[in-house]
Amino acid sequence: SLNDFNCGISLDNGKIILTGNSFFDYLTSNLCVAKLNSDGSFDTSFNGDGKTEIFIENQSNDGAQKSILLSDGKLMVFGSTFSANNYFTNPDRSPSIIRINPDGTLDSSFDNDGKLILNQQGIISEAKVLLDNKIILIAESRFGGNSRIIKLNYDGSLDNSFGTNGIATPLVSLNGLLYRNLLIMEDGKIMISGSYNTSITSF
Fold this sequence. Notes:
Helix content: under 10%
Shape: globular
Order of helices and strands: EEEEEEEEEEEEEE
Strand content: 35-45%
Number of helices: 0
């Protein structure tokens, strides 16, 4: 069952897509997606019963921070995951992304199985899909360290033309620098804003 909804998208045809989490215990949860008709009933064209439950990894805690509907009808869900088995030794999360076809199945053209875990620490605090379907996202660490800006190709691979192997690090040397907002300018440049961990400073 869906225990917690934290993202929602209203479609032009009046239908609604919801993403959330299904908890099994204190540490273990799966990511859930539901599609509703305009009258609130489940849309059975989506995975047969209007909902799907996805595990990023076995025995993991999966969460969703943001979802974006693409022009081809596919759904991208941006979130994070960590291994419940390693929680007490490594509690920080790893950014995760899934891409779902319009019928509710995982899109195997995205990182081969529709699921991607980035080899970084933190959660995805913001994400944008560009006109060429490339993806810009912010990975924000929960336990110190600085945020990173990451750019992915449509297939889920890192865009090596961006930053260093697809990852841009902060241009200023501030411990605990957190990027929270992301704006793509008309010329393709990226504007970001955020803060770092003092009580009086932001940028």
